[in-house]
Amino acid sequence: MSWGTELWDQFDNLEKHTQWGIDILEKYIKFVKERTDIELSYAKQLRNLSKKYQPKKNSKEEEEYKYTACKAFLSTLNEMNDYAGQHEVISENMTSQITVDLMRYVQELKQERKSNFHDGRKAQQHIETCWKQLESSKRRFERDCKEADRAQQYFEKMDADINVTKADVEKARQQAQLRHQMAEDSKADYSSILQRFNQEQWEYYHTHIPNIFQKIQEMEERRIVRIGESMKTYAEVDRQVIPIIGKCLDGIVKAAESIDQKNDSQLVVEAYKSGFEPPGDIEFEDYTQPMKRTVSENSLSSSKEGKPELKFGGKSRGKLWPFIKKNKLSLKLGATPEDFSNLPPEQRRKKLQQKVDDLNKEIQKETDQRDAITKMKDVYLKNPQMGDPASLDHKLAEVTQNIERLRLETQKFEAWLAEVEGRLPARSEQARRQSGMYDGQTHQTVTNCAQDRESSPDGSYTEEQSQESELKVLATDFDDEFDDEEPLPAIGTCKALYTFEGQNEGTISVVEGETLSVIEEDKGDGWTRIRRNEDEEGYVPTSYVEVYLDKNAKGAKTYI
């Protein structure tokens, strides 16, 4: 099958068909370009998505990624970033292996097509020129033949006429002979041109056109093969990244399988464990023996007017409050003491240990730097031309000072750490006292009972249902009178070392240098209860004040 023999008369249609083939190729190139743009856009969106959910450095989010579920999520984000990279690879390979290559090929194809059809038009023009020459010689031969016939008829007419002179007859005869000779010459010329045209026409239809059309056919077949190869490359580019994409997905699955719920639960314990022990049982306080009250309802409702003298034992109201509320409060304070005394024991120990570890790392870094400077100084001493050893003395002294400062800092935090680690095992009794284990009270009034119930903000203290109905009905009246109750006795004084802004419930603001009364010393949770004047009291961090207990205490104790 050859276009030269089968389509010898379809020059115009072949020209249109080959142009259509180039248009198809350019359409495929455009398709691949748009695919590469989509891959790049998709990769960019995936990278932005991964970046959006990455934890911010030095933020609370970064601390949350110690949990295995968060680590798995972080691994998923990293794998998605690699996944996006493979889509970028697809775009790059399609651009280099398909788009650029086909664009260059299209230019070559257009040039080759133009050359082939130019040769075809040239052959067409040549055969048309030969045809015109043939037609011209044919018309001339026909005209000369007619002229010869007319000259012959005129000669015969003149020869038959007796009135015509002999000279005229001879002239007519010569004219007839001349016309006849011209007809013979035109005949010979026409015959020659006809033979040459037939030869040219045979070569045109059997040699020139078949050769040109064969080239066009080969060109078109190469185009078809090329677009097929490009489609294979298109699929192969995708196929090449499938194993890597599979590894990314395997990485996500592996990260998901690494999630350990037990480990995460343990991390929650380590993160929030306070070190306190749960509160013990509250002892029953019998108020029936020393009751000095009337059965009338008026005596209870008028307690605001004639309030009896309140007697407090060793444990004041609000013993449950420091354990339940104060530790939560201390975690919300903005100003954190250097020794982390505002934190529960276990959390304080962890913070101090972390601080010691960080300081040791800084010491090691400074030590390595000092060793490097020392070695460089030794090199300068042995080879003075390389540098002046004295130029390193200032830097060496500065690094040495930094090491000494860090060591002192480490010793300070290690001392605090040793204190915490030494106090943790022996704090159970103190924690019990904080959690509300009251000393046996056998001589408190009915009002004390109502106050003790109010001292627990969450209402954890409840009276026995065996008490009289009058107390249950009038409990709210007693709750409204707590602001007027007898203040706790002062057990010492304190001086504010720093300014503290008490913005949370239960705290009190102090100014540096201010002297205040101490009504409850630190029970191991980092807070001291103080009073200003007679009506303003609250808690401040123990590390913010210098406490002096009165003579009834064992001695003055200073918290720094």
Task: Give a summary of the structure in a few sentences.
Belongs to the FNBP1 family. Its main location: membrane. This protein is mostly helical and 560 residues long.
Word description of this protein:
The protein contains 14 helices and five strands. By secondary structure, the protein is mainly alpha-helical. Strand 3 (527-532) and strand 4 form a beta hairpin. The protein is rod-shaped and about 190 Å long. Residues 292-333, 425-484 and 554-560 have low confidence and may be disordered. Residues 1-264 form the F-BAR domain. Its main location: membrane. Belongs to the FNBP1 family. Residues 294-313, 449-468 are annotated as: Disordered.
Offer a few descriptive terms.
5 strands, five-stranded antiparallel sheet, 560 residues, mainly alpha, cytoplasm, lipid-binding, coiled coil
State the strand order across the main sheet.
4-3-2-1-5
The secondary structure category is mainly alpha
Largest sheet: 5 strands, antiparallel
> What low-confidence regions span 5 or more consecutive residues with pLDDT below 50?
292-333, 425-484, 554-560
Helix tally? 14
- What is the CA-based Rg, rounded? 56 Å
Question: Which geometry do the CA atoms define?
Answer: rod-shaped
First and last CA, distance: 104 Å
Number of DSSP strands?
A: 5
Mean pLDDT: 78
Helix content: 55-70%
Taken as a percent bin, the fraction of beta residues is: 5-15%
Multimeric state of these chains?
single chain
Order of helices and strands: HHHHHHHHHHHHHHEEEEE
